[in-house]
Amino acid sequence: MSTLVTLPVLLPILGAALSVIFVRQATLQRLIGIVVLVAVCVVAAVLLVAADRTGPVVVELGGWPAPVGIVLVADRLSALLLLISTVVTLAVLVYAIDQRISDYGRDTASTTFHPIFLLLSTGVSLAYLTGDLFSLFVAFEIMLAASYVLITRRTNAERIRSGMTYVIISLTSSLLFLTTIALVYASTGTVNLADLAGRVAALPPGLRTLLSMLTIVTFGIKAAMVPLHFWLPDSYPNAPAPVTALFAGLLTKVGIYALLRTQTLIFPGDGPSAVLLVLAVLTMVVGALGALAQNDLNRLLSFLLVSHIGFMLFGLAVDDARGAAGTALYIVHHITVQATLFLVSGLITRRTGTVSIDQMGGLARRSPVLAVLFAVPALTLAGIPPTSGFVAKLALLQAGAAGTVGTVVVAGFVVLASLLTLWAVVRVWIRVFWGADKEPLPDDDPHDELVIGTSKTSAPMYVASAALVAVSIAIAAAAGPLSAVTERAGADLIARVPYLEAVLG
């Protein structure tokens, strides 16, 4: 069973290598990507079942035991997030494949897209499974290097500008992360997460606080936490729909996962964190208000993405098993629904020829299927019962209500941010899907991958989007068993004992 833990990292690397070898075989390239991701989904499901039944599954790479060697660990949280992330990655790949077929023909292969796409999946898998800080840094660098390529493929001037912002901020956060690792190693003599849990506790309180704040800032940049979020609304909207969907669904959640793992395992608190509660409120409110001010559909969704990072920070700030479980459940829900909304936004853009909300209208009559594909994830994001968003927010509200006065107050901001989210998506619905029909605008740059005319939108792109909508509905339908798994995962995070015993023996 421990050998399986390596496969989510190794399979995408091998798939990327094969995609390069068969660079002139377009159909084979596509098949390799789909087969690899399906295999990773199966492995992740097996690891989740094993971790839930018997505890964390650990593999010591090279035969070197922890804390000296590198270990990969699949516990309930990491296996669950690996599974849902790979499912979303697979759906996005199907969407991207069909978009490329529609735009460039069935026989057109890609020298970069498929290999880089699989490398991005490698980085995400390694980030979830790694058991030490330096390997986590490597995972982030793999993801970022792949994202640099994906966000600037078939570039124009606007995308180069936004891509430069993304690259500069990412490099800055990477430098800060590396500095944090150096300080941690200098203070403790180890970078193994399980070993750090004991060694950091023996450090002076001031040094512990400094290291904790450094990790919050480092991973807060990657998670787009306010006030470190400014790069995201400028970067994501300028990428093609499948790339934006993948980034929105996965990259920011990996940052939240890193925060959740390090704060509960290495820097556990004695109660709710006032700093994280304040940051959660700022992130929820600033993101939601920013969304209401947007006329660009993709920028609006980007600000909503920022807002809902605050919901996950709130669960982390509660600092108990309920809060950790609520954050885990919210990550699962949000990975799916945010990726879906950006895929549907791509379909809307291809129908209308614009990202301007004011220049759209009447889509409900012209494309009722598209209207349904937008309505379901939009209501899910707002948390309307009985969607998965409602289930996840209810878990967070229950955690906040059971805490201190501060957590109860912030729980009120969760409700406020949810209402603002509902206002934003209803505003989009009224302007885009109701009202008078408006003719599609001509594509002002037919050589990029952002806006293509209505004649080049095919059924499989709708099917991929509908599949993610179905996954979101399935999450709501399986709310009972899934909540039970996240509750056990939250208890493990706060207790720390199962993880420490599995890694250190």
Shape: globular
Structural class: mainly alpha
Tell me the major beta sheet.
Answer: 2 strands, antiparallel
Unreliable segments (pLDDT under 50, ≥5 consecutive)? none
Order of helices and strands: HHEEHHHHHHHHHHHHHHHHHH
Number of domains: 1
Number of helices: 20
Rg, alpha carbons: 22 Å
* Assembly context of the chains: single chain
* Overall average pLDDT: 89
Tally of DSSP β-strands: 2
Q: State the separation between the terminal residues, measured CA to CA.
A: 17 Å
Spatial order of strands in the largest sheet? 1-2
Our estimate of the beta-strand percent is under 5%
Q: How much helix is in the residues?
A: over 70%
What does this structure look like?
Strands 1-2 form a two-stranded antiparallel sheet. The longest helix is centred in the middle third of the chain and has 32 residues, at 157-188. It is globular, with a radius of gyration of 22 Å. Helices cover 74% and strands 2% of the residues. The mean pLDDT is 89. The chain has 505 residues and is mainly α. It has one domain. The chain contains 20 helices and 2 strands. Keywords: Cell membrane, Membrane, Transmembrane, Transmembrane helix. It holds the Pfam family Proton_antipo_M. It is a multi-pass membrane protein. This is Multisubunit sodium/proton antiporter, MrpD subunit. The chain crosses the membrane at residues 6-24, 31-51, 77-97, 109-128, 134-151, 163-186, 206-232, 239-260, 272-293, 300-318, 330-348, 369-388, 408-430, 459-479.
Summed up:
The protein has one domain (2-504). Helix content is 74%, strand content 2%. The chain contains 20 helices and 2 strands.
